[in-house]
Design brief:
The chain has one domain. About 5% of the residues lie in helices and about 55% in strands. It has 4 helices and 15 strands.
């Protein structure tokens, strides 16, 4: 079984959620509503892996939002860090960092950086977005091979795997009927890729160690590769309140299944009114 990117790819499951001032001013907003998050928000998850009916907690993922500046603009820095637990490192060690810098006024990404160390497999990916020319410029380096650069045409409101997670939290779900597809476009592995979410309605969900929540449920498309088989097998439950934080995520992989469950949060912009019963 190929276990590469199991932790790192979890950062992209919720999808699977402007280099100067005049660039942003020339474009329409990708998000029309008030943002569901703020600087200082931190959300923590534990990643669980299942193989032959045995479930094991193998790692953790932290999402953070910070204020920052770049190209003389005030931006949000979105950070996702995935690591294996120390007891699992002897088998397959992971330390992945995904970062996306977005303009909070337009919700357009400015810059993206993915730094991967998966059991010695090193990869460094950077994207620079030019929304005036509708281009994204990339630099990709894998292992010790020479870096290569590319330029892609940038359709309106295209995201990377970090910014799309936060974008999905700001979708106006009232506009969609149950089972209706919500299309998304992302830059993934130096290619433009169409993915989607499908709204499945509301239900209650227990999150072990945290509580029982009112949730919105979605399924989503997965991209076939070393980890996923592809198809609409991603399942996501998010809090049915103004924060829209992912609470529980499930997805099958080539061999087995992985889950991500909420274990902690702080700095939320709104009260977590979806929490029906706390287990703390």
């Amino acid at each position: 079984m190929k276990k590469k990117q199991i932790i790192g790819m979890m950062l992209a499951l919720g999808v699977m959620f402007m280099l100067s001032a005049h660039w942003a001013g020339a474009q329409n907003r990708c998000v029309e509503k008030e943002l569901s998050f703020q600087s200082g928000e931190e959300i923590d998850y534990v990643i669980t892996y299942n193989w032959f009916l045995v479930w094991t907690d193998v790692g953790k993922v932290k999402f953070e939002v910070r204020d920052t500046t770049m190209y003389d603009r005030n931006l949000y820095q979105l950070i996702g860090t995935g690591t294996t637990f120390s007891f699992y490192d002897w088998f397959f060690q992971v330390y992945d960092v995904y970062q996306s810098w977005i303009d909070p006024e337009t919700f357009r990404p400015v810059y993206y950086h993915r730094d991967v160390d998966e059991d010695g497999y090193l990869m460094d990916i950077k994207y620079w977005y030019n929304h005036t020319q509708n281009k994204v410029y990339s630099r990709v380096q894998k292992r010790s091979k020479p870096a290569y650069r590319d330029t892609l045409t940038l359709p309106n409101c295209t995201f990377d795997v970090m910014s799309v997670i936060y974008y999905a939290r700001n979708i106006d779900f009232e506009k969609y009927e149950i089972d209706q597809k919500i299309p998304l476009k992302i830059v993934l592995d130096n290619e433009l890729t169409d993915v989607y979410l499908r709204y499945k309605g509301k239900e209650e969900r227990k999150v072990r160690g945290v509580g029982r929540f009112k949730t919105l449920k979605f399924t989503g498309s997965l991209i076939a590769g070393d980890v996923f088989q592809g198809g609409e097998d991603l399942v996501i439950w998010v809090s049915d309140d103004e924060n829209r934080i992912p609470l529980w995520i499930e997805a099958p992989i080539i061999v087995g299944k992985i889950k991500a469950r909420l274990v902690g949060y702080k700095g939320l912009k709104y009260p977590l009114s979806s929490l029906i019963e706390s287990f703390e």
